[in-house]
Design goal:
About 35% of the residues lie in helices and about 20% in strands. Strands 7-6-5-2-4-3-16-9 form an eight-stranded mixed beta sheet. The protein folds into four domains: about 190 residues, Pyruvate-ferredoxin Oxidoreductase, domain 3, CATH 3.40.920; about 170 residues, Rossmann fold (3-Layer(aba) Sandwich); about 70 residues, no CATH class; about 100 residues, Rossmann fold (3-Layer(aba) Sandwich). The longest helix is centred in the N-terminal third of the chain and has 23 residues. It contains 19 helices and 22 strands. The protein is of the alpha/beta class and about 575 residues long. It is globular and about 85 Å long. Helix 3 crosses helix 4, helix 3 runs antiparallel to helix 6 and helix 7 crosses helix 8.
Length: about 575
């Protein structure tokens, strides 16, 4: 009899061009339609050609949102694999491989993927055989499998679509055979209604959040892993009031965004750490000219080129300090796909109201991961906060909040002057060092008081009567939350920070109530732990740091909790 499990972890690995990512996309859709909860994340080697790529798919009876070390089923499509994948293979792992071609592990069960594909028509269909194999293991309906495969390949013509359907059907028979003879016994039961579920990855969530925030201008130079946001928005510009520009470099991107903001647009720039480094001067210009900008930075390991297709949380210090001089900014960091959607919208709200740059930090793991979720919340439409100028209009008028009425060129009777130099209230260049210069700097920094007063509060998960407090920001949230749920400790809680700067003062009570503080970060130095000490005066007792280019796993955090 098959054993019922809450989830099954399946890893598929192959060379670039073998269709591993196609299988991932189809499996995510297939499992969700079958009434299963699903999570998927990919690993792509940081090279132009060659190497081994993999995808992990978790399918469960309850929501699954995080990466695990455990591999229940491993399907290698190539006779090599990454060493860290080999280390994740355990005694319980079912390895399915063409043993005549692949000698990756002595305990592998032979599955003739290529032979079946060639019988159907050509070896190219082996990825569809692998898809069907997994569908058979998960007991997914044959009709649904054929429907999903047919939809995906329909654009390639009826003959190709039918061949892939047949390949998937034959693969499903292989999978069912493994279940029936007892070699695979970990079944998962569908939860809830079958049919279409909302499936998002972090890339699309950021793009949709930007559109919900009224983004009408996106300017970027492609840089992994942020490029997907540019592509998502570019695909929609013909149907929406939206202009998307791919420019020659990151310096051009931030400066064009500044020009767009000055004319009243709601710009988004998307980049990674190396791009943000190049944008530092432009970010300073935006700060001094008091323009709204949302800058999405999808982090990857550095320094320099680092590992372009891997994940890290190493750009927090850069986000905090990029740009010369002192000016107000906000740094947000979504912990999951829903937060990526909501916080991108919130970033536009803050940028427009306070006329500042808002930096949204994601990472490769978050933007490339998929999971199913309920409906996205409806978010309110945002005001531009643009005034019709009068004859006596002053672009940089002193106010109690530090926020001046925002006028744009040609909208009203007043003359709008903007300048990147130190300027007076009218926008004229000024070298009045005794009054204008210090007061204008103070005016810009005064915005931080309002921003801190409305800073997003950290979110507590777990018991309120805790002794140990785990601190997370960004994508460390979901692995830590699942680990906490699994270990069921009544003395350990989790505090997640969606806003990193300015830090919310509400955090003081949470931090002060703990006997022990542990910060989880995907970098080598504990950048957020340092920020907590500098801004709030709390030194953490321990740092759990990971900087090998891989995301935190549920087991990473569970081991830490178990050792407390």
């Amino acid at each position: 009899m098959p054993d019922n499990h809450t989830d099954v972890s399946i890893v598929l690995a192959g060379e670039a061009g073998q269709g591993v990512q196609t299988v991932e996309r189809l499996l995510v859709r297939l499992a969700a339609r079958a009434g299963l909860h699903v999570f998927a994340t990919k690993e792509v080697m940081s090279r132009i050609r060659g190497g081994v790529n993999s995808t992990e798919l978790r399918v469960g009876t309850r929501p699954v949102r995080a990466f695990v070390d455990r591999i229940d089923v491993f399907i290698p499509l190539v006779n090599q694999t990454m060493p860290h994948l080999q280390r994740r293979i355990g005694d319980e792992t079912l390895i399915l491989a063409e043993t005549s071609r692949i000698d990756i592990h002595p305990g592998a069960v032979d599955v003739p993927l290529t032979a079946v594909a060639e019988e159907v028509g050509k070896a190219l269909y082996s990825n569809s055989v692998a898809l069907g194999l997994i569908a058979g293991l998960l007991e997914i309906d044959a009709g649904l499998l054929g429907e999903v495969v047919g939809e995906h390949f329909s654009a390639k013509g009826g003959e190709i679509a039918e061949a892939n359907r047949e390949a998937a059907r034959r693969g499903r028979e292989l999978g069912r055979g493994l279940v029936e003879d007892g070699r695979f016994s970990k079944t998962v039961t569908p939860d809830g209604d079958k049919g279409e579920r909302l499936l998002l990855n972090g890339t699309r969530a950021v793009a949709l959040g930007a559109l919900a925030g009224g983004c009408n201008y996106c300017c970027a130079y492609p840089m992994s892993p942020s490029t997907g946001v540019l592509v998502e928005l570019a695909a929609r510009q013909d149907e929406l009031p939206l202009v998307v520009e791919q420019v020659e470099d990151e310096i051009a991107a931030v400066n064009m965004a500044a020009g767009a903001a000055a004319t009243g647009a709601r710009p988004l720039v998307t980049t990674s750490g190396g791009g943000l480094a190049l944008m530092s001067e432009g970010l300073s210009v935006i700060g001094n000219m008091e323009l709204p900008l949302v800058l999405h930075c999808a982090q990857r390991p550095g320094p320099a080129t680092g590992l372009p297709t891997r994940s890290e949380q190493g750009d927090l210090n850069l986000a905090l300090h990029a740009g010369h001089g002192d000016f107000a900014r906000v740094v947000l960091a979504p912990g999951n796909i829903e937060e990526a959607y909501r916080l991108t919208h919130h970033a536009f709200d803050l940028a427009l109201r306070y006329q500042i740059p808002v930096i949204l930090l994601t990472d490769q793991y978050l933007v490339d991961s998929f999971h199913d979720l309920g409906e996205l919340p409806e978010l309110e439409s945002l005001d531009d906060h643009i005034v019709k100028t009068k004859a006596d209009y002053r672009r940089y008028a002193y106010t109690e909040s530090g926020v001046s009425p925002r006028g744009v060129y040609g909208h009203g009777a007043g003359f709008v002057r903007s300048d990147s130099h130190t300027h007076d209230q009218d926008g004229h260049i000024s070298e009045d060092l005794h009054e204008t210069r210090p007061r204008m700097v103070e005016k810009q920094l005064l915005k931080l008081e309002g921003l801190q007063a409305e800073a997003l509060e950290p979110v507590l998960h777990g018991p309120r009567d805790y002794q140990t407090l785990l601190i997370t920001w960004g994508s460390t949230l979901e692995p830590a939350r699942e680990a906490l749920e699994n270990t069921r400790r009544d003395d350990v809680a989790l505090l997640h920070f969606p806003q990193l700067y300015p830090l919310p003062l509400a955090a003081l009570e949470y931090l002060g109530s703990a006997e022990r503080l542990i910060c989880l970060e995907g970098n080598a130095t504990g950048q957020f732990a340092d920020l907590l000490l500098r801004e709030l005066g709390f030194a953490v007792d321990e740092k759990l740091l990971k900087y090998n280019g891989l995301a935190f796993t549920v087991e990473d955090v569970a081991d830490l909790i178990s050792d407390l």
